[in-house]
Write a structure and sequence with these properties.
33% strand; 9 helices; 2 domains; binds adenosine-5'-triphosphate; six-stranded antiparallel β-sheet; Rossmann fold
Amino acid sequence: MTGGKKMEKKTLLFFNSNAGDGQAQQIAVEMQQKLEQKGAQIIELNTKTRAEAIVGLQEMLRQKQLAKIVCIGGDGTLNIVATALVHAHAQVPVGLIPAGTVNNFAQKWQIPLEPRAAIDLILRGNQRRVDIGECNGTAIVSSLLFGSLAELSNDVQQRQKQKFGLAVYGWSALKHLGKRQSAELLFFNQTFSLRAKVWVCLMTTSNYVGGYQYLGKTSAGLHVTMLNNMKINKLLNYGFFALTGNLRRSSTLTSFDIKEVIIKPVAKQAVSVRIDGDEGPQLPAKISWLPHFMTIYVK
Ligand SMILES: Nc1ncnc2c1ncn2[C@@H]1O[C@H](COP(=O)(O)OP(=O)(O)OP(=O)(O)O)[C@@H](O)[C@H]1O
């Protein structure tokens, strides 16, 4: 800037009063004081919907107003920030104060679940770049899910999740087991193609899902795990290996790591995708791995 005073970059405090048990707003007040004591200039973004929040954030990123983003919420809230970073092709460091129900991303990166400890970690300033994914323009910070399990998750509302916790997914699964059909899908990129009947397909950016380590050693890329048909004996086998962190040793699964893939239903069938716990687009979808894309504050 010439002639005038150089505009000082600000810290965006982005929070979601719907996340977890609804404490994010209260946490935000305390975090604002802590950040201001350290000399940060705080701005907030007040929006009503996810779509509005993405557009608002994108605008701030384009104007290069932000020194950092402090995000208070779970994976769904962090996904809004990451999606705006993807749209704006921007690199602004992101600090996470976990206030969700599961907080998978925070557990993976050992970000303290206690807000004061999380803000101290951000203030220490240690950063690293982490891998995320992208599906038709939406970021994937932790996971993408489609198939019967994803559809039954669509039946679970945030209100029920806050009241009953994760048990609502188990209840919904029991209600639907046997009712839903698998979908015949084509997975392809420039070097591979696979046609499979899929009951459920999970893609993750790390070896964590639902706050637990479910995979051991993995190679570069998004980690894909598919259940091709669902019977109760398969479910038990799958559960055993998932709980012991060895999901890929289960004989009932197809799994691989991939950097880019297009997924299309073979017939005209509506298959919706869930990303980081929120309802996402329908297939077909182009899914890409974005290595070292997002800068976060870590221990
Ligand atoms: N600024 C916002 N405006 C509207 N909706 C938002 C906003 N921020 C987040 N949301 C939505 O609120 C819902 C809950 O958020 P979030 O996923 O962070 O919490 P959670 O579900 O309790 O946590 P977790 O994903 O870790 O289980 C999500 O559907 C998310 O998209």
